[in-house]
Amino acid sequence: MRSCVLASLAIWTTLLLIALGAVLLAPPICLLIGSATRMPWPRLARYCIWGYGRAVAWLLGLFFTIRVHERPDFPQSLPRIFVFNHGSLLDLFLITLAAPPDSVCLARQ
What we know:
Elements: H1 2-37, H2 41-60, E1 81-84, H3 91-98, E2 104-107
């Protein structure tokens, strides 16, 4: 029981630190990338959100095993929309393991 509480505390502390770091670091990093690449803002925002989700998913992988099954390969030239039915808060971050970087993800609530 005690180890579960400590593991949960470690995971939520890590997520909080990542969120605080992202709030402080993401805007200047996105502005630098945007000015260097001249990428349109909506596309740049999708890439920044995808990168944040991937970083969180990678850090969560330090605490437990994450597996993605049957990830389809979509042609990069076609637009795509993913709709996910969330089972938990962590799904928000794990979605980035299944969706390509320039994707639009819709979620219920």
